[in-house]
Design brief:
By secondary structure, the protein is of the alpha/beta class. Helices cover 27% and strands 17% of the residues. It folds into four domains: 3-10 and 218-359, Rossmann fold, CATH 3.40.50; 40-200, Dimethylsulfoxide Reductase, domain 2, CATH 3.40.228.10; 390-532, Barwin-like endoglucanases; 547-868, Alpha-Beta Plaits (2-Layer Sandwich). The strands form 13 sheets. A six-stranded mixed beta barrel has the order 14-19-16-18-17-23. It has a four-stranded parallel β-sheet with strand order 6-5-2-7.
Length: 922
């Protein structure tokens, strides 16, 4: 029985604090149907992002990263040239997408509409207007756009040349608009895809019924009118995250009875008459729709720990259904979709595959001639009028951008310690949100410094938070992350007296839910402690991350081998074939019996496809029982992550100067060269060196080499001298200064006097991986290449082999946690003795190199150099990546003859000299 049949006066209202429906609303006006665009990043050779962080904060970002990485991966054509996609980004925040762009334009969020308008007008200029009748909607649209395009405060060449690139790749390019942008920008993005012939090629559409629900605003009106008898809140947390002008805590109380189903007794539960404990979605049966509309099962991993009800059970009871068990409801739903014939077989297939191919919805067939240019003209004209009435961002009228947080999302993960302690991909801040602003904004507001507390006033509402100067941020724009400042979250996420971060929802209204202008900023003359895991972010001209432009790579594929000290000194001998020879005879090689001739493990990380999303960091923490340590200990540089993502900025030499890249950490944020930086990300873990410097200094042999090439830890031997950490050049070892696994993070200094309740200990034990040792105070730890997974695979192979002797684990059988979680497939792990393994093939790539390879420690973890694909005609084009320009100033060009690369003759001793062809530009 349906709820409408049982309760005909009942209404269904939907609300998401981060609303992704602007694209669907725009398509309803453009095509007459509510459609969700499905971009195919793997098919696009040129991608243009209009404030769309598809690698980070947008919906379906995981699959978008996979598609983008597929297009980014170097491919060789028939004429032996390498190809890859190109990315343009226009944005106000410094996002993951912008940090990976070949060309990035920083503008305020309010200016993105003007950029989109200028692009549409420029495309008409370049491809012509087939409908040039004076009364046609296209002519009317161009008339509206022309004046707006003239007002764009950016280099006209940036627009012209990027549009030329799009036009040159018609049907092979893609334009996407972000969720923060209004419907008018989404309509212009669709218009661009229509004009470029991308519909059905690089973008398709699926039906979207999410905009059919009544809004929270409509519910507020009914509550205010006193027409709501019983309000049932399923999930969500509107008292915390509803628009500030709705004052939902008071609005909710206007209903006669409020019933709340939720995971926690949170802010909304605090103002309810009844709170029903909600079972986790992985504790019960359910179903869902994926981003492309596929129907999926949700299967329980365990019985509910604390009882509780699911949404299905509650709704079934409200509807008066006889069938109230989620398992039965899901089966009935599937039976209604596939029919009775062969149902049991389809049910098993449904559970086995995780979906049914027969239920996958087909793309909606949309043609370019279905695009309603008249509707777009009306929407754009209205947007232009509204833009003309609003003030431009300035130091006296700041723009505030509310953005989805990379860890907290909209606040739903606030009570998760892994998420709180995961460094933000760009700022590297943990346990707090901040007021992001550019260097120029901070300077013009009186020289504001990092960590200084300020008060932001927007539409009469106020919030206080600490400042953080972010390179690449738009001037006169402030970035506020949502999801912090909870007052009823829990022991991790904060309570009223000890909140974590500040609540940006306090000034976020219904009319400026994504961004708004007119904000004022007041300085409060006090400092707030912030825990940041990376204070220094210049490579200082060193070849830590090695990168080149595509045309340089085409001319000199082995440029990465021609960088850093190993290419400029003679202390590492080479044999006649140019391969590194041994200067240290490892004991295992002197005694072959101690070294396995079946498995030798290694890893390669492709910086070309890594986007810096940090999925690997959390996966490693979950797999290997890595504890959280709390804000104070992170501030003391005692975080325990085995894997970190190092993020580096490189500035334009014209503004950077010769010595400013060597400036002290606390002065870096105030330098002009960071205004428009290039960004690189580098996952950093234990290098598993064959001649590991940590092993030679350990007095108790706690860190040793095993017969398969792993640098392993014997935890029960470790006495905590920390000599190994001091001798590690990559700084990837972590020391347990406290019993983080045993003590609450707010009682670490109490030692044995601190304790957890017995029920907490049981829960924590259930969260641990039983195959991984839980470490204690005084013990050093680090990446193990997920040795537990290696051993499991070897045991399984031996069992399967029986007496055959074939015990070599097949390539791809073992996936480390970081590798398994990486959406870009940027990490390869396997057996180096297998020449057909993926990792062996990658290590033979000319882009392969070892970080600090000149130390001659023979790391088993190596990296593949990053290749950029800039457009030579763009005004921000550089002959080589900015980090490589910095390197060239110190060491000479890696794209020239080896001898001339550092201003001298080729080395005459120590190693055989290779003959390199000259390529690239200095």
């Amino acid at each position: 029985m349906m709820i409408r049949e049982q309760l005909p006066e009942a209404k269904w209202h939907g609300y998401e604090p981060v609303d992704f429906r602007n694209s669907s609303k725009a398509s309803l006006k453009s095509f007459g149907k509510a459609l969700r665009p499905m971009p195919h990043f793997d098919k696009a050779k040129v991608i243009f992002s209009l404030d769309n962080d598809f690698l980070g904060a947008e919906q379906e970002s995981y699959s978008h990263i996979r598609g983008y990485a597929d297009g980014r991966r170097l491919k060789e054509t028939e004429d032996h040239h390498s190809t890859m996609n190109r990315l343009y980004a226009v944005e106000s925040l410094m996002t993951l997408t912008g940090s990976n762009a070949d060309h990035r334009l920083r503008v305020t969020s309010g200016q993105v509409f003007s950029v989109a308008a200028a692009m549409v007008e420029e495309i008409f200029n370049q491809i012509g207007n087939s409908d040039d009748d004076a009364g046609s909607p296209i002519t009317a649209l161009r008339s509206s756009l022309r004046e707006k395009a003239k007002a764009v405060a950016v280099d006209p060449k940036w627009i012209t040349e990027s549009v030329k690139d799009l036009v040159a790749h018609q049907g092979e390019c893609l334009v996407v608009a972000g969720y923060r942008q209004p419907e008018s920008v989404h309509q212009l993005a669709t218009a661009l895809n229509v004009l470029l012939g991308n519909l059905g090629e690089t973008v398709s559409y699926v039906s979207d019924n999410s905009i059919s629900y009544d809004s929270l605003e409509a519910l507020k009106g009914e509550c205010d009118a006193g027409s709501v008898d019983t309000l049932v809140v399923l999930g969500g947390n509107p008292v915390y995250d509803a628009p500030a002008d709705f004052d939902w805590k008071i609005t909710q109380r206007k209903a006669k009875t409020v019933v709340r189903l939720g995971y926690y007794e949170d802010e909304t539960s605090d103002g309810s008459d009844w709170h029903l404990p909600m079972a986790h979605y992985l504790e019960s049966w359910g179903d869902a729709r994926s981003g492309d509309g596929s129907y999926l099962p949700v299967q329980p991993l365990m019985a509910p720990l604390f009882g509780g009800l699911t949404e299905l059970e509650v709704i079934a009871r409200i509807a008066g259904n006889d069938e109230i068990k989620p398992y039965d409801i899901v089966r009935t739903t599937l039976r209604g979709l596939v029919g009775e014939a062969g149902f049991e077989g389809q049910w098993k297939q449904f559970l086995h595959d995780g979906y049914l191919e027969s239920l996958k919805p087909e793309d909606v067939d949309i043609k370019a001639d279905a695009f309603d240019w008249s509707a777009v003209t009306r929407e754009v004209s209205q947007a232009i009028t509204e833009a003309d009435q609003s003030s431009a961002a300035s130091k006296d009228s700041l723009e505030v951008v509310f953005h989805r947080d990379s860890s907290m999302d909209d606040g739903r993960f606030n009570n998760n310690g892994w998420m709180q302690e995961m460094p933000d991909p760009m700022t590297k801040i943990t346990w707090d949100n901040v007021v992001l602003m550019s260097r120029r904004t901070a300077a013009e507001l009186g020289g504001i410094k990092n960590k200084e507390m300020v008060e932001i006033v927007l539409d009469g509402r106020k919030v206080q938070g600490p400042v953080w100067i972010q390179p690449g941020f738009a001037d006169f724009s402030l970035g506020l992350a949502l999801g912090y400042g909870r007052t009823h979250s829990g022991r991790v996420g904060g309570i009223d007296s000890e909140s974590v971060g500040f609540n940006a929802y306090a000034i976020r209204g219904s009319k400026n839910s994504n961004f708004g202008t007119g904000a004022k900023l007041n300085r409060l003359n006090r400092i707030f402690d912030i825990s940041c895991t990376q204070d220094h972010w210049s490579m200082e001209g060193r070849a830590i991350v090695r990168e080149a432009n595509l045309e340089q790579f085409e001319e000199k594929h082995d440029f990465a081998q021609n960088m850093d000290l190993e290419a400029h000194t003679s202390h590492i001998p080479h044999d006649d074939e140019g391969n590194p020879a041994e200067i240290y005879e490892h004991p295992y090689k002197a005694r072959p019996s101690t070294s396995s001739d079946i498995h030798q493990w290694g890893m390669a990380i492709d910086l070309q496809t890594c986007v810096g999303c940090s999925s690997c960091v959390v996966a490693c923490q979950s797999e290997n029982n890595i504890p959280i340590v709390g804000k104070e200990q992170v501030g003391n540089s005692r975080e325990m992550h085995w894997m970190r993502i190092d993020r580096y900025y490189s500035g334009n030499p014209e503004t950077r100067g010769k010595a400013s890249n060597l400036i002290m950490d606390d002065q870096q944020p105030y330098q002009e060269w960071i205004d428009d930086p290039q960004v690189v990300n580098q996952p950093m873990i234990c290098q598993h060196c064959e001649s590991a410097p940590c092993e030679s200094v350990c007095p108790v042999n706690a860190t040793v080499h095993d017969h398969e090439g792993l640098n392993v830890m014997a935890y029960n031997r470790c006495v905590g001298t920390r000599y190994c950490s001091n001798n590690c050049a990559w700084k990837v070892r972590r020391f347990n200064y406290f019993d983080y696994n045993k003590r609450p993070i707010d009682q670490l200094y109490e030692g044995p006097l601190a304790s957890r309740p017995e029920e907490d200990i049981d829960l924590i034990e259930m969260a641990k991986n039983p195959d991984v040792t839980v470490r204690m105070r005084g013990v050093m730890e680090k990446c193990t290449f997920c040795t537990q997974r290696i051993e499991q695979a070897k045991i399984a192979k031996k069992v399967a082999a029986r007496d055959s002797g074939d015990i070599e684990v097949a390539d791809g059988t073992i996936k480390t946690a970081c590798q398994q979680a990486c959406p870009a497939d940027a990490i390869a792990f396997g057996n180096l003795l297998d020449p057909e393994s993926k990792v062996s093939k990658l290590k033979k790539s000319p882009r392969n190199y070892a970080v600090l390879g000149f130390l001659d420690t023979r790391p088993r973890t190596t990296y593949l150099a990053k290749i950029r694909n800039p457009n030579k005609n763009m005004p921000d084009y550089h002959t080589m990546p900015l980090s490589t320009l910095e390197y060239t100033e110190n060491m000479g060009s890696p794209f020239e003859e080896h001898g001339s690369a550092h201003g001298g003759e080729a080395h005459e001793s120590g190693h055989a000299v290779e003959t390199h062809s000259e390529g690239g530009q200095h």
